[in-house]
């Protein structure tokens, strides 16, 4: 991420700055998207929601964004977000689960206070031993991505009109950000402990990768725009739902039913969060279809980058690219999935049937709706070039995997 404008390189000396720069440089040639707070003051989320002063949203059509300066466009978009506070209380916050009704990592792990703890750990290790190294790499990559949660909360707090201004604000958007983070926090914690107990993972290298990733941040190219941000999160939550769901299916195929349950329950959370973000964008389309259509085009042109695209273990600056290749090979997350998500969002938001758009928004509509067919053709062409690329990445090259001699697929 760019250095804050008020700091110079002398003010902030990173001991791994050169490594970080090389990682980011390598990430610019990565395969785009082919691979994925404190708790609320009471656990039931029954808190007093501060409502902002009423905001008047004009019913007259908004001007095409190319006729206005970016500052005016942003101000209008923040105005729309402000007008949605009551809607967010009624339609967004109910998608959160009270803490008492949420699963916790310990529900799926051996109990260290039990006299059978060691037997349970041995049973876990026996189950995981059947999982090929390639699939283990995918599971570790998913876990590291989940563990970089501080970065994602930071990203949310860059959205103008949405950010948690005080750290404990009681606006519905701030309540959502903190509660969403609290729910997501369980994912990385559960996968981390499961992999630790498996005995097949070099946890120090995994932990080092996580620290590098959080320190590096991410570049989703949202530009503080809440429209861009919610389009990005809609896409990303569906991507993680697909990734965890596929990992669950593979774990079941290889005989680890407990791991399949773990990945499946995480995927269920991601699906619920996907519904929340697509619901937000759907509401935005109702209020400001021109603006959202232009934002959708903007994010599709930029392409959705995965949260862990700056991943490194301190040794391999192409680590995310290699991880993405393994994920493609194992069919955990593929270029086809990327196109499927795009198609799903177009259908969910009924983009093709939008009418009454400005000329510029109509052009954006044509562009976005034509992407699916274009990407399908690119997929077919890429299949012929896939094998040479895939052979460049092997699970045995990952520092995360102990030399266990387990087969790869």
UniProtKB/TrEMBL annotation:
One of its GO terms (biological process) is fatty acid biosynthetic process. Binds 2 iron ions per subunit. It is found in: Plastid, Chloroplast. Its main location: plastid. GO terms for cellular component: chloroplast. Its cofactor is Fe cation; Fe(2+). GO terms for molecular function: metal ion binding; stearoyl-[ACP] desaturase activity. Fe cation 2 binds at residues 184, 237, 270, 273. InterPro entries: Fatty_acid_desaturase-2, Ferritin-like_SF, RNR-like. Keywords: Chloroplast, Fatty acid biosynthesis, Fatty acid metabolism, Iron, Lipid biosynthesis, Lipid metabolism, Metal-binding, Oxidoreductase, Plastid, Transit peptide. Gene3D superfamilies: Ribonucleotide Reductase, subunit A. Fe cation 1 binds at residues 146, 184, 187, 270. PANTHER family: ACYL- ACYL-CARRIER-PROTEIN DESATURASE-RELATED (PTHR31155), ACYL-[ACYL-CARRIER-PROTEIN] DESATURASE (PTHR31155:SF36). Belongs to the fatty acid desaturase type 2 family. This is Acyl-[acyl-carrier-protein] desaturase. The lineage of its organism: Eukaryota, Viridiplantae, Streptophyta, Embryophyta, Tracheophyta.
